[in-house]
Each structure stands twice: as structure tokens, then as C-alpha cells.
Amino acid sequence: MPTLRRTALAAAMTVLSVAGAFAQAPLPGMRSDRPPTVWDLPLGAHARELPADPFIDFACGTNGGPPSTPLTGWTDFARCRAEPATGFHEVYFRYDDEPEYWARARYLIEQIAFYQYTTVFDIPVIVSLLFDADGFLVGHRIVSDPRVPEGMRENGSSLAGILRARYGEELFDCVDQPKLPGESEFQGIFVKRECHATDAEAHLAMVVLERNLRKIGQHQQDVLAGPTAGLFESTTYFQALLDAPIEDRAARLANLPEPGESERDRLIARALNCPGCDLRGVNLKRADLTGANLSGANLHAANLSGADLTGAVLVNANINRANLRQARLAGALLAGSMLFASKFDGADLHGANLNGVLAGEVQLSGANLAGSFILRSDLRAARITNADLTGAALGGSLIDGAQLTRSNLSSADLTAASLWRTNMAGANLAGSNLSDADLYGANLREADLSGANFSNARMTAVVMTSTVTTGATFAGAQLPAGFTPPP
Q1: In the CATH hierarchy, which top-level class contains the domain 1-34+282-487?
Q2: Which is deepest, 93, 141, 339, 480, by most CB within 10 Å?
Q3: Collapsing DSSP states into helix, strand and coil, what is residue 252?
Q4: Which residues are CB-contacts of 432 (< 8 A; sequence separation ≥ 6)?
């Protein structure tokens, strides 16, 4: 491994060290108090009694299919048209994605794979709840997710047997449906089974549909192209409905608390105009805090567009997936924070301290980062186009695969930074320091490199078409083929 690459990887390890407590903390989903799942949403409860915070992306369901009309939570159930078949309102939802983005911020491949889907018994599923006209939860619906990669989709039919076993295989009366003309086995097995059960003790009526086959027109081999991929159906459709009336329905409806401002709502209202507040550790993720002045909170997926966070202290904060477009963060302290896939387009971060941030896939297009400190940070695959990074300190950072087209990096410090295949076409690098940097395969087409220092840099396979190199230094650098440095 080249020395420069070892340096960059060592810097990456430093990033995790600088991240402090976050680097050592377990993923939320690995806590002893496991996150809630569909099984923790009891039939017979009212929509106002169900927890909403552990779940996300509420929407009207489509009989176990993808989401349709977005909702704010369970209590929006009536916005969904009653199903003709059941007369109930279907609400789609997903499990919280915070653990997934903790893993993505650290590029923990196995953990990303584990957390990125809503699953039942480790099989990706589409889950939804069924509510009656009064808002009582009367059904669970679980369908294997056909949107996942082929290897995962193959396991969809196996969920049927697991669910039957969960409730008691002996309860189910199953009928194998006949093979229609054109249908065939998948992986040597043909299954087209419909199972029904009634659990008198649990007051449940259940149906399980299991499919493992190739449908009409799906073939293992294509006459011209050879073996096919993805042409199969391996699915499970499960529905459990409450098979008993809601006890004391009228009394329970009469005694439900009126929907009002929650403690979380009051906290959000306080934060909307609360400069300098100590809100460290408070969970405000997904809260709409547009225009707020806020510091020290868990801001996972929060909406902070246009917020005034000037000088805010957000050390080691969770700001993954957040929206901070046009926010004011001048002089803010964000060292060690997670900013994975967050949006800072047009934000003012001049003079901010972002040392050691885990900011893969962050969006900073048009942002003002002049004079900012971003040392030993992870900015892989970031989008930082048309941004102002004049005099910014990015030494030792991982910026591989990032987009820095037309950005102003004049007088910036990129010492020992890793810029593998980074696109800096049209960027202004005049007077910048890229000594010991690794720019393998980077695109510097039409960039201004006048007066820049590339001493000992790795520039193998770098695109140098129409660059301005007046006064640039290339002493000891590994230069791209055909490039002659200026005298």
C-alpha cells in the first residue's frame, strides 16, 4: 500500500477517535432495551394510545404494497380510504432508521445491511396497521418486501412457515392451489398455498398466502440472453384481524384524552426562539424547527432549514439525514458530529469547527465554508459544488469520490488529504496546499492551480486538461502521464 494511502487510512482512524463518545457507543438497535416492532402494537388499542416516535414514514397503505398518501402518524388513519374488502383504514409505516444511519456514518457494512430494512424474523417486509372507523387497531398486515435485492427476495416465501409456527402450526388449515398453465417451479420448488386460522384464545382470524414459483412468462432461461435473474415470485402475505368486538367501545372513546400539545411539542415550541438554550441530549429528531435557534440536541432527520445556529455548540451531535439548507452556522462547533447524508446546501458555515465529523454523502452545494476547520474528517462521496472553502483547513480528511466542481478552495489546506477520484473540475485551488495529498484519478480539468503546492502528492491518473499551473510546485510528486510541470 502506498505511503500516502496509509496516511489517509490512519487519518480515518483518527476520525473515529475524534468522534469521542459516538465512536464508542453501541448502535441504538443493539441496546438491551430493544426497539419496538409491529408486535409491540397491540390489537384493540386506540390510535391515540400507540407510540409513534419509534416509527417513521407513516402513509396510507395499499394492501401490503408501497406507501401512498403521507401521514403525520397513527391518528391520521381516517385520511386513508376504507378498504372495500375489510372496511378498515390501512396505515403503512417503517421502523426507525436512526441505527442504520449511525452505521452508514461509520461505513460499517454488516451493520448497514442489518439495519437498513424493516424486518420480521430478519426478512425484509412491508408492515401496516388496520384501524376501524373509530380509530381502534384491529389488524396487522405483514408482506415480504419485493423491493429488496434478489438474494433477499428469494427468502420471502420462508416467512410464511415462520409466522404459522409463531401462532401455532396446528391452528392453520392450508390448501395448495393448482398449478396454472405457464407456471413452474422456482429453485426446484413450486408452492402456491393459502392458509386460514382462528385463534379463539387470542381472538384472532389469520390468513397466510405463500408463493414460491415462476409465473406465466417468467423463465429460468432466455432463448437469446441465457440465464435470467429476478424472474420469480417468492412472497408471503400475512394478515391477523381481531376476531372480537372492542370491549367498552363507547366508554373508551369518551375517556380518550383530547389530542393536544405533548411535552415534545412544547419543547419544540421553546426551541423555536431560544438562543443559547442548553438542550444537549434532547431528542428532537424529525421535528420541524424551521428558523429555530437550537444547540446540543439529537437532530437525526430534523428539519432545521433556515435555522439560526450561529455559534451553536453541537459537539458529538447526531445530525444524520437532517435538513439544514440555508441555515446559519457561522462559528458553530460541530466537532465529532455525525452529518451523514445531511443537507447543508446554501448554509453559512464560515469559521465553523467540523474537525472529525463523519459526513459521508453530505450535501454542501453553494455553502459558505470559508475559514472553516474540517481536519481529519470523513467527507467521502460528499457533494460540495459551487461552495466557498477559501482558507479552509481540510488536512488529513477523506474526501474520496466527492464532487467539488467549481468550488473555491483558494489558500485551503489539504495536506495529506485523500482525494481519490474526486471531481474538482473548474475549481479554484490557487495558493492551496496539497502536499502529501493522494489525488489518484482525480479530475482537475480547467481548475486553477496557480501557486498551489503539490509537493510529494500522488497524482497518478489525474486529469489535468486545460488547468492553470502558473507558479504551482510539484516537487517529488507522482505526476500523470504526459504532464510536464511548469519550470
Answers
A1: mainly beta
A2: 339
A3: helix
A4: 409, 410, 411, 412, 413, 414, 452, 453
E strand or H helix that includes residue 199: strand 191-199
The C-alpha atoms of residue 286 and residue 296 are separated, in whole angstroms, by: 15
Distance CA 372, CA 322 (A): 20
Q: Which residues of 371-395 are buried (b: 16+ CB within 10 A; e: fewer)?
A: bbbbbbbbbbbbbbbbbbbbbbbbb
Distance separating alpha carbons of residues 418 and 440, to the nearest angstrom: 9
Q: How far apart are CA 61 and CA 262, in angstroms?
A: 27
- CA 309, CA 343: separation in Å to the nearest integer? 15
Per-residue pLDDT tens for 458-467? Answer: 999 999 999 9
Please report the DSSP string for 304-357 in residue order: -TT-B-TT-B-TT-B-TT-B-TT-B-TT-B-TT-B-TT-B-TT-B-TT-B-TT-
Three cell numbers, residue 320: 444524520
- CB 466, CB 486: distance < 8 Å: no
Find the helix or strand (DSSP H, E) in which 235 lies.
strand 233-242
Residue 341 Ramachandran class (φ > 0 left, ψ -120 to 50 alpha, else beta): left
For 484, other C-beta atoms within 10 Å of its C-beta total: 9
Residue 202, SS3? coil
Contact 90, 63 (CB under 8 A): yes
* Separation of alpha carbons 174 and 180, rounded Å: 18
Name which of 236, 243, 114, 91 is nearest 163 in CA terms.
Answer: 236
C-alpha cell at 170: 396446528
Neighbours of 404 (CB within 10 A): 28
pLDDT digits (tens, 9 = 90+) for 81-94: 999 999 999 999 99
Q: Taking the alpha carbons of 39, 153, 55, 65 in that order, is the dihedral positive or negative?
A: negative
Task: Residue 369: count other Cβ atoms within 10 Å of its Cβ.
Answer: 29
Burial label for 33, CB within 10 Å (0-12, 13-18, 19+), is exposed
pLDDT band at 280 (very low <50, low <70, confident <90, very high): low
Q: What is the arithmetic mean of pLDDT over 19-32? A: 36
User: What cell does 209 get?
Assistant: 398466502
Its pTM stands at 0.82
Q: Report how far residue 188's alpha carbon sits from residue 223's, in angstroms, rounded to the nearest whole number.
A: 20
* Residue carrying C-alpha cell 376476531: 243
The residue ranges of every structural domain in the chain are 1-34+282-487, 38-250
Helix, strand, coil in percent for the chain, rounding step 5: 15, 25, 60
| CA distance linking residue 119 with residue 304, whole number of Å | 30
